[in-house]
Amino acid sequence: MAVQIPTLKVERRLWRDGAERIVGVDEVGVAPTCGAVVAAAVIVKPSGHRIPGVRDSKTLSAQQRERLAPLIRSKAVAVAVGAASVREIDQLNIYHAPHLAMLRGIRKLGGHDHVLVDGNRIAGFEHKVGPYTSIVDGDARVYSIACASVVAKVVRDRMMTLLSARYPGYGWERNQGYATREHRLAIRRQGLTPFHRRSFLALQRTLAGDQLSLDLLGAQLDGIAGLDDIAGDLTDDLLALDPATLADAPAVIPA
After folding, report:
1. For the chain, where do the domains classified as CATH 3.30.420.10 start and end?
2. What is the pTM of this model?
3. Superfamily of structural domain 9-159
4. Which residue in 122, 148, 120, 130 sits closest to 25, CA to CA?
5. According to the model, what pLDDT value does residue 207 have?
């Protein structure tokens, strides 16, 4: 099957209608069992041209994404990143947390005229961001959303690589927190970390084939003093970095 190439068709229509700052937004990190959800918001230049190779980040290799992300940042009018922490994912649920991450990214841009969001309509989103259009498969079809998907994926992968230095053995630098066999076996061997999503415990138990009860797993987590503060502080430290810094950061987190 041929890979779909995103176009500027939607953006050009909005530009013709007088909107200039068109934001493409996409998020990554919904399916993994640990780590933050990260969203990127990108405003492309009305007079600019597409960067060859930019498309839905899921269709690109890590090397391709790493090459394209700095090009996107250099050619865009503005790029911003937002996230929802593990604590917020567990509090809000994994459906609402990505919307919070998107909103944070959009608000960092310094103003916009219209927002293009990958996916379905979001209840109440227009009251928070103003005019917006939701586009199913937007990361594959719409250029600014594709740009956002690449930036968000690179930033989140870098975050998981940084966290893997603090919590070695889970393979986060390779699996980015997805429930791979390596990750499942590490959970059974080493237990859970403050960055594992507590609300995903039932899923983790099923995927890992673990015979431990959910109560025991919960007690294991609750026994760590200051668990939420630890996870929240580290996530905040990472989110304070801009996308360019994260892309170039060494794979080490200070102790």
Report:
1. 9-159
2. 0.82
3. Ribonuclease H-like superfamily/Ribonuclease H (3.30.420.10)
4. 148
5. 55
